[in-house]
Amino acid sequence: MQTTRPSDRLAWFVFALVVASTATAQEPRLWLERMNQALTARNYDGVFAHWQDGKVEMLHIVHRNQNGAVTERLASLDGSGREFIRTGNELTCYLPDKRTVIVETQSGEQGPLLAGFPTFDEKSADFYDIRELTRTRLNRRNTRVIAVTPRDEFRYGYRLWIDESTAMPLKTQLCDAHGRIIEQVVFASLTLASRIPDSAFKPEVATDGFQWLRSAPRAAGPEPANASALWSALKLPPGFRMTARSAQIMPGAQDPVAHLVFSDGLASVSVFVETRSEVVPADQQPVAGVANVGSASAFSTVIDGHKVTAVGEVPPATVRFIASSVKRSEAALSAASPGH
Amino acid sequence: MSADVSDLSLVRRVQSGDKGAFDALVLKYQHKVTKLVMRYVRNPAEAEDIAQEAFIKAYRALAQFRGDSAFYTWLYRIAINTAKNAVVSRDRSPVDYDLDTQNSDESYELQGRMKDAETPEGLVLTDEIRTTVNAAMDALPEDLRTAIVLRELEGLSYEEIAASMDCPVGTVRSRIFRAREAIDRRLREVFEGGLGRAEELG
Amino acid sequence: MNEELDSQLSAMFDDELPQAECELLALRLSRDRALQARWGRYAAIGAAVRGGDIRLGGMVAYEVSSALASEPLLADARERPMQPTGLTLARWWRPMAGAALAASVAALSILWLQQNSLPASAPLVARSTAPSAAPVEAPASYVVPRALEARAMRMPATELANYVVAHSQFSTPVSRGSLLSALMASESAAVGAPEQAAGAAGDPDHHADDSP
Question: Shortest CA distance to A40 belongs to which of A9, A72, A17?
Fold first, then answer.
């Protein structure tokens, strides 16, 4: 109908890569790249089981990439009724059990397709061992089993069953440094569709009477003195470096929060620094604490009177390390500038 | 000889205001029409768009359809005209050889087309479908397989199949039905979950 | 499923059903989604037998039905038949739609879980010598990573969930999927309980001096 669109070229590239791969490519890293590309650039519709902490939940995902514009819907099939729908830069979270809708507008700095997530490079190889364990059949599909093994305890590892012909991850395990499984995702069914209609991305939740909370990226303009530019982490776990920073207003909040992102090429950790500091009576000071959100760890503490929270798909020790080393000073401006 | 009774009863329902009956007609012919359009455009997504357009045109013109020809013959002509118009309007060289042979159902290889096509879309577990159907066909008892092949591939009527297989028409009907059921069961395994149907596991 | 009805459907599909039965079946076909789905599958089987790709054209009926939803009827609907919208057209080949799916999917998940609680028949053997490359065990039990000397974080669950969501755009696609999946569960944040040393994990504070 029209000339090749960028996303089609990308999709063709992924396909061609996969077709060619059967003969030549041995590199497990290439499989990871293909997988990430497939997850971003293809249209698919699947039902998967998500195991965590001894519990399993069934979820439904629909993902469409049209000319680089990504639309996605993730919905729980097990009765929580929650749905997350992403359209372009906006992620809308429907939480019927809390009678709340959260609308998060994500920063537009990240490219729609591939630039948004960590890219594995030579430095990252120092911290992860990536190899192909075996080839096996899963659900009657030929898959490559790729193991990503961390070399220290600051990060997690993966075992991925990647479908040879589509590069989609049919099964994924998140493991700690000792190989113990923290989380598993397995597709029960997966369809790569040529076209997916808009109706597949409409929420099924009725939102009458719900509370709506919206976030907004920080408006362009001179940043206040507390802005993200003045925050950085002076000490980081080996391999981590700052890869992005921004400031945004979280849903339901008034004041902007600085958002720093650190990554080792595979795992990433976000640090949120509340820019508003106020004198809080000592007995009401928030206490440093840790939490798990699924397989992600979160750690919150107070630095210079500002609440600092680190979140990432890393072990608890890592978020604690990074959050605790966040500093605000003039020296921080020159150290650890955003790389990539 | 087909009096086109089946399609006409659906057409009459559509003409009296029942859109669901039109859905049934589209379901029946969507593969055939799209495959037909593929002779004119090579891009599958485009072929599906044109097929869609053809069906919509057919719906709008259905009020004037009198049953002078079989419904599919009428639909076929609309599809061809829609495809030709689409090709011409894209400034490609107009189709100047005669493709209007109604019964030549060419098969094509999806993967072969992939190498040339601009967009490798529609890559649904394709190997799985093909192997599944082939396996299901191979697993059929010979009389069932023969019956469905004569019906779907050769387009013979039940009477013609009965003559060819030397059995009553009722037996032909039953064999075709059971063949469809067997293949359908295997297909649903593929489409409704890579693990297969719950009751067939373990 | 009613076998006699399906047998009639098969015959009607081949235009081998007497007219009177056709008229009745046509009425049912226009309203019964399950019957329509079966009818659609017969067409797909025909396409498969002829050697084509089932998927080609498989979405056309759905698209046409959606497009025609806003078209006027061809006549005044004297009988007021039910008008299925495009959305209700049976998408038989797509693994989604409605409570029936949820039930069957739940059944699937139980069976899958049972299958996986058995020891893996062929444990994967890592070819590396890295100490962490343990053979894959079936996930009968999961570890929940605990921090040492942990205090429970006191933060509203919603606030933490917002942070997780804001972070998710910077994760790899695989991680992002699991992060968001975790937020689907009934409590968006499980507050880690303070506890004793986990033992095997060692003391991560030793790494604190290994700055790059």
Answer: A72
CA pair distance C181, A312, nearest whole angstrom = 14
Contact C205, C149 (CB under 8 A): no
Mean predicted lDDT score pLDDT of chain B = 76
Q: At what angle do helices C173-184 and C157-168 cross, to 10 degrees?
A: 160
Residue A139 sits at the chain B interface (C-beta within 8 Å): yes
Short-list B156, B162, B125, CA closest to B143? B162
Task: Pick C111's closest partner by Cβ from B29, B152, B201.
Answer: B201
**In this structure, is the dihedral angle defined by the CA atoms of residues B28, B29, B32 and B38, taken in order, positive or negative?**
negative
* Closest-CA residue of chain B to A44: B124
Q: What pLDDT, on the 0 to 100 scale, is given for residue B94? A: 41
Q: What is the pLDDT of residues B112-160, one digit of tens each?
A: 232 223 223 333 345 566 677 788 999 999 999 999 999 998 899 999 9
Three-state DSSP class for residue B158: helix
| Preferred mutation among C88, C112, C153, C210 to probe A, highest tally of A CBs within 10 A | C153
> Checking DSSP bridges between strand A55-66 and strand A69-76, what pairing results, if any?
antiparallel
Facing C60 at nearest CB: one of B16, B34, B108: B34
Task: Compute the distance between CA of residue C196 and CA of residue B121 in angstroms, rounded to an integer.
Answer: 53
- Dihedral sign from CA coordinates of B130, B136, B138, B140: negative
If DSSP states are collapsed to H, E and C, what string results for C108-155? Answer: HHHHHHHHHCCCCCCCCCCCCCCCCCCCCCCCCCCCCCCCCCCCECCC
Q: Which chains touch A (3 or more CB pairs under 8 A)?
A: B, C
Cβ(A48)–Cβ(A186) below 8 Å: yes
Instruction: State the ipTM, two decimals.
Output: 0.80
Q: Is the pLDDT of residue A198 over 60?
A: yes
What are the chain B neighbours of C19 within 8 Å (beta carbons)? 5, 9
On chain A, the residues whose CB falls within 8 A of the CB of C179 are 293-296, 313
What's the pTM value of the predicted model, to 2 decimals? 0.51
Nearest-CA neighbor of C135 among C150, C148, C121?
C121
